[in-house]
Amino acid sequence: MIYVVGIGPGERKMMTGEALEAIQNADVIVGYITYIRLIEELIRDKEVVKTGMRKEIDRCQEAVNIAKTGKTVAVISSGDAGIYGMAGLILEILDKEKEPIGVEIVAGVTASIGAAVRLGAPLMHDFCHISLSDLLTPWEVIEKRVKLAAEADFVVCFYNPRSKGRADHLKHALEIMMTYKSPETPIGIVKDVGRKEERKILTTMDEINYEDVNMTTMVIVGNKETYISGDRMITPRGYTL
Amino acid sequence: MIYVVGIGPGERKMMTGEALEAIQNADVIVGYITYIRLIEELIRDKEVVKTGMRKEIDRCQEAVNIAKTGKTVAVISSGDAGIYGMAGLILEILDKEKEPIGVEIVAGVTASIGAAVRLGAPLMHDFCHISLSDLLTPWEVIEKRVKLAAEADFVVCFYNPRSKGRADHLKHALEIMMTYKSPETPIGIVKDVGRKEERKILTTMDEINYEDVNMTTMVIVGNKETYISGDRMITPRGYTL
Questions:
Q1: Domains along chain B?
Q2: Best residue in B39, B57, B83, B133 for a mutation probing chain A (most A CBs within 10 Å)
Q3: Backbone phi, then psi, for B4, in 5-degree steps?
Q4: Which of A16, A179, A233 to mutate to test the interface with B (most CBs of B within 10 A)?
Q5: What's the whole-number mean pLDDT along residues A119-142?
Q6: ipTM over the 0.90 cut-off
Q7: CA distance A12 to A108
Q8: B75, A44 in Cβ contact below 8 A?
């Protein structure tokens, strides 16, 4: 039996009851070392398999191998396991191996929602998620989605917005969006949501400081109606007050 | 003090600890009658203000008025309060009234995520949320977003997909998408996620039965890579197994 569990952005209280329960029911916990650290005190009595970054296939294969021995395994992702997380890969591996192992995907609060509650209410209207990592997706596909999302006036949440190896991806994405968006379009940046280093920045398309953004940052770009009021970013739904 | 709380799709165990805590801390609970019913046993000792459908402004204004008297109010939305929920409206009202009332938005599991875990892993790649309700958004704007989302090959989650008054909106939306998508594109339908009437349907663009869809249904349309395997809908992230 495998639980694929999203533990939310960081804080325990942003986890669902179902996620806590799945972790409690598991014999073995499998996850990326950084996420394992976030739940350390929940898994003191468990067997733990930690792996490093970019070891997703090994990690999921290991989880499947352990489940084959009859143990109950919880595979941990941050945020929601089904959004750029481990859920798809676990299902793909089981599919390929035709293993009749039970799987339960456990819902979590994804990074965009975790960041949005800190910013105010930026996701009140149609929005999309785009990952700016081109490790698994050709950059041309990402560019096309960024362009069309801007043209559609979606609020856009950028996952994996910027890393050392991809220092200019966010800048390129915003340059593409500039054709359709005003330079004053509000942008909300939340670093390390729900962790002790959490930091929130409200800025605009033309004033963003890219140095404020790294891999553990959520960047939310508003639509034409989004505004900043005090320390909050708000996208109106369309009610007339 | 106002908490704006997302209670998730339905089941208690899909709520976050933070949401439970906010409800516990509140003196008064304000919400749409259907959502209030979902958390009845949590709020037996509370003052409760229930209002009917389409009374969003009245409901939020009432919550603000009660908070002005010094009471702690929890405004309840299903799913996440910041996604087509009450968070934006509460902040807009406070903004307009320049009331210095504390507000905390509490994250929840939105309907797309709740449905996705039941379907498998359909949201593993870039996706968007589009509401098909034209009560607050012109239909032309919705049509444009549907077209561009299909062209971008986003996985698309339709909120408010179909009601008696809008019986053909989903059909129109899928017809628009047909220009860019194969008729075999998988569609996942989940009705009443996390409630006792829950039902899951896997189908395709050309075989969907619109009668399976109503207002408490989430409809997820796959991208070019999405496939159905057994009783699961999976969108690969791009790993090579």
A1: 2-109 (3.40.1010.10), 112-234 (3.30.950.10)
A2: B83
A3: -110, 115
A4: A16
A5: 97
A6: yes
A7: 11
A8: no
